[in-house]
Amino acid sequence: MALDMVKGMEFKQVLELIQSGKPEQARALLAQLQESFLNLCQENENLRRQMDEVTQILNLAESVEFDGQKYWLNEQFRKKGPYCQVCYDRDALLVRLQEHDKHWHCQGCGNLYLKRAQGMERKQGLRAVQGKTIPLFVD
Ligand SMILES: [Zn+2]
Asked: Which domain holds residue 122?
């Protein structure tokens, strides 16, 4: 508000300078006003962009779902993913997991997520990975 008042006074001053036959001074003052106007526009644009980013992050946080192991993204009746839990929790990055027969792999941090097996599938899955240590969490 204070800024608006100052600018209002300066515009009035420009008018007065013109009326009293001082066009050079009026022009200089106008140039100053133009510069601060452009700065305000830039600042406004930056703030708008920041606000958009915050809104996006909030929207994202609302549509991310944790299945106890990985993240999924709910997008208008569609489920996208899964995404790496480590990358999202640590860096707020949604890194899509690559699907393999028995597990999901994150190319971002190298983490492996064993697939949830059921019944026979589960036993076969366990046998298949026997002798191999699969780190569930990579530091
Ligand atoms: Zn990851």
From this structure: 67-128
Q: What is the mean pLDDT of residues 18-41?
A: 94
111 with 137: CB under 8 angstroms?
yes
Is the same domain home to 91 and 55?
no
* Residue 134 lies inside a defined structural domain of this protein: no
The answer to whether the beta carbons of residues 81 and 104 sit under 8 Å apart is no
89-122 tens-digit pLDDT: 999 899 999 999 999 999 999 999 999 765 443 4
Distance 83 CA to ligand 1 centre (A): 8
In this structure, are 40 and 74 located in the same domain?
A: no
pLDDT, tens only, 35-75: 999 999 999 999 999 999 888 888 888 889 999 999 999 88
**Residue 139: CB atoms within 10 Å:** 5
Tell whether 88 and 53 lie within a shared domain: no
How far is the C-alpha of 98 from the C-alpha of 58, rounded, in Å?
A: 26
**Ligand 1 centroid distance, CA of 136 (Å):** 11
Distance 109 CA to ligand 1 centre (A): 4
Q: If you measure from the C-alpha of residue 91 to the centroid of ligand 1, how many angstroms do you get, rounded to a whole number?
A: 9
Residue 77 shares a structural domain with residue 56: no
Q: Is the pTM of this model over 0.70?
A: no
